[in-house]
Amino acid sequence: MSDMNTKDFMIGTLIGAIVGACTALLLAPKSGKELREDISEGAQTAKLKTEEFTSDAKEKGSEWATLAKEKSSELAKTVQEQSNQLYERVKEATASIRKTAEKAEKTADELAQELASDLDETKEQMKEDVKKDVDELQSVTTEKETNY
């Protein structure tokens, strides 16, 4: 609230000073010609100051626009570089995952082949064991029959 009061006070003071200066010029004991010259000089001075402020504002605006362009260009370049790096990382990770999946697939195929060959070997072994058992059983049975 005190900022508002200070601001209002400063604006009031400035307006009062301008009104007072104008009043002093108009009420000063000068001839009309002198008064018109003073007013003309004041207008010229105000015009020159306005032109200076305008030119300074244009210059500053141009500088800021150039600076903003440069910064946005740098930012765009940085973003593009980082996105390219990220793209490459994703590409490498995808390739790595594919290779790992292929290895896992090969490993699964190899494991299936090993199991199949183990089953074949076990099957053959079981056939041989059953055949032995049958042969032994026949020989035992044949011996018992001859003994009777």
From TrEMBL:
It comes from the Bacteria. Residues 42-65, 108-148 are annotated as: Disordered. The chain crosses the membrane at residues 9-28. InterPro entries: Desiccation-related_membrane, YtxH. It holds the Pfam family YtxH. Residues 48-65, 120-135 have a biased composition (Basic and acidic residues). Keywords: Membrane, Transmembrane, Transmembrane helix. PANTHER family: GENERAL STRESS PROTEIN, SLL0268 PROTEIN. This is YtxH domain-containing protein.
